[in-house]
Amino acid sequence: MLLVVGLVITNNISFIILILLLFIVYKCPISPIIKILIRLRWLFLSILLLNLFFNSDIINLFLIIEKIIILITIILAANLFLTITTTQEIIAALQWWFLPLTKLGFPTERLAVRIALVIDTVQTVQKFYTDINSNISNKTTELFAKVLICANTIPLCTLEIPNLSKPPWWQWIYPLIMLILILNDYL
Fold first, then answer.
1. What is the pLDDT of residue 45?
2. Within this chain, do residues 70 and 134 fall inside the same structural domain, yes or no?
3. Quick check: 1 pLDDT over 50?
4. What is the domain count for the chain?
5. Which of 28, 137, 166, 179 could cross-link to 23 by cystine, CB 3.0-4.6 Å?
């Protein structure tokens, strides 16, 4: 639903304000987002410089800044999604998206569980990365060693795969609205 609202709102700044308000409502910490945005500052700068090099108009400058704001919006929305959504909800959503693949004999439960577990462990690996205080060549080796130690020592836990029930019919309208809004730009 958040993406549909974002596509309907034409002003990117108002969508960022909406996401920040949702961060406050759901009591999500903003400090990890600031760290991520600081890490991505060189990406934003390179997008700005490369686009300015190829298109030096002032109008294109505003388009470039809009692209950077869109990337920031995507990062905020993804972090909000990962913060407020449980692993079981992610697995259930992935299973619904992969449902057509089950008719081809593809094991969608295993794929959904693997993706959800990877999303959960990314935060742990990021914490390991920030805890390491050494140069870059040793940092990779230490990170790999910490990940292997964690993988070997982490206790096993049971993961319940929720029974799939059909989502309400009105939730199928969201992808249709997104498709219409996307195709509206090309028509």
1. 92
2. no
3. no
4. 2
5. 28
DSSP category for residue 156: P
65-123 confidence digits (pLDDT tens): 888 888 888 888 888 888 888 878 888 888 888 888 888 888 888 888 888 888 878 87
Residue 3 structure tokens: 């993406």
**Range of the structural domain that residue 149 is part of:** 87-171
Contacts of 130-135 with CB under 8 Å at 24 or more apart are: 130/35
- What one-letter code names the amino acid at 70? I
Tell whether the model's pLDDT for residue 146 goes beyond 50. yes
In whole angstroms, give the CA distance from residue 83 to residue 77. Answer: 10
How far apart, in whole angstroms, are the C-alpha atoms of residue 19 and residue 21? 5
Together in a domain, 3 and 74:
yes
CA distance 142 to 123: 17
Looking up tokens 């505003």 gives: 62
Query: Cα(first)–Cα(last) distance of the chain, in Å?
Result: 24
* Amino acid, single-letter form, for residue 29: P
pLDDT (0 to 100) of residue 8: 45
